[in-house]
Amino acid sequence: MAAIDLIVLGMIKQQPQSAYELQKNVEYRNISRWVKISTPSIYKKVIQLEEKGYLEAELVREGNMPEKSVYRITPEGEHFFMDLMEKTARETVSIFLNFNAVIMNLDFMPEEKRKELLEGIHDGISDLKETIEVKSGERQHIPLTGRTILQQQLEMTEAMERWLTGFEKEYLKKK
Questions:
Q1: I need a labelling partner for 130 at 20 to 30 A (CA). Which of 21, 69, 153, 161 fits?
Q2: Which PANTHER family does the record match to this protein (predicted)?
Q3: What is the pLDDT of residue 27?
Q4: What is the DSSP string of 147-171?
């Protein structure tokens, strides 16, 4: 949950905003591609952070629109944010890839199904790589920190492609 806390607090630290605006910014930045975060989790997290005193809401009305809560980070939230940044930066990196559950169980599938499943994994990696390449081209104006995450993700997809190709050659040759 620390990653969601950091995303929400960091975006609100950058600019006070409503939960809806926060959700739209997460979508625009494609953050859910590299951090497990969903629309319901954003709204839930904003409420939790407000209840803990890390965010405070101000009701704002723009024109004829209904009132909305615009959140800003509190001094307690600033302190919590800094502690989370320090703690998260020092954690051992974890890499969870759902397709590893498929790889682990390939031996229990008929041969033709194994090839089909491996092709599916290839397609998923290729789709991700293509999406990242498109986003990288569209988002040249974003800060270096955002661009470097896109580059990191691109390099990871390339490494996964190389790994999967090598695995397939060895695995399919044995069977």
A1: 21
A2: PADR-FAMILY TRANSCRIPTIONAL REGULATOR, TRANSCRIPTIONAL REGULATOR RV3488
A3: 85
A4: HHHHHHHHHHHHHHHHHHHHHHHHH
